[in-house]
Amino acid sequence: MTTIAIADTEARTTPRRKVLDSGLIRFGEFSVLCVIRNLSEIGAALDAAPQSFVPDQFTLIVVRKKKTYPCTVIWRKGTRLGVSFC
User: Fold this and answer.
1) Is the pLDDT assigned to residue 59 strictly greater than 90?
2) Contact call for residues 2 and 18 (beta carbons, < 8 A)
3) How far apart are CA 55 and CA 45, in angstroms?
4) Residue 76 pLDDT > 80, yes or no?
5) More exposed terminus of the chain, fewer Cβ within 10 Å: N or C?
6) 47-to-2, 8, 19, 32, 56 alpha-carbon distances in Å
7) Range 53-80 average pLDDT
8) Are 72 and 83 in contact (CB under 8 A)?
C-alpha cells in the first residue's frame, strides 16, 4: 500500500501580498522599528530586531501609509512575528 503525503493547507482565510514597508510597533510609551514583510486585510508578518521585546498586543503603525492597526501576536519565529488585526 502506497501512502501519499499531502502538503500542509494554507491557514489564511484572506490572500496576503508581499510588501517591504517600514513600520513601528507601538506599546505604551515605547516604539520598536520593524519591517512589514506581508500584509492582508486581517493580519501581517513583521520582522523586528532580535533583542526587542514585543508584547502580545500592540499597535502597528505603517509609516508610508500613515495607518495604524491594533494587533495581537499569533506566532513568533526568531525575529519574525505573525499578527492578526483586532
Assistant:
1) yes
2) no
3) 15
4) yes
5) N
6) 41, 24, 12, 10, 15
7) 95
8) yes
* Superfamily per CATH, domain 17-85: predicted glycosyltransferase like domains (2.40.10.220)
Place of cell 502597528: 60
**Grid coordinates representing 78?**
526568531
Q: What share of the chain is helix, strand, coil (3-state, %, to 5)?
A: 0, 60, 40
The grid coordinates listed for 83 are: 499578527
Residue whose cell numbers read 492578526: 84
Using the structure block, give the residue that is written with the C-alpha cell 500592540: 58
Q: Give yes or no for residue 9 having a pLDDT over 50.
A: no
Per-residue confidence at 11, pLDDT binned at 50, 70, 90? low
In the DSSP assignment, the letter for residue 9 is P
Would you state the cell numbers that stand for residue 63, as one nine-digit string? Answer: 509609516
pLDDT confidence of residue 2: 45
* Every domain of the chain and the residues it spans: 17-85
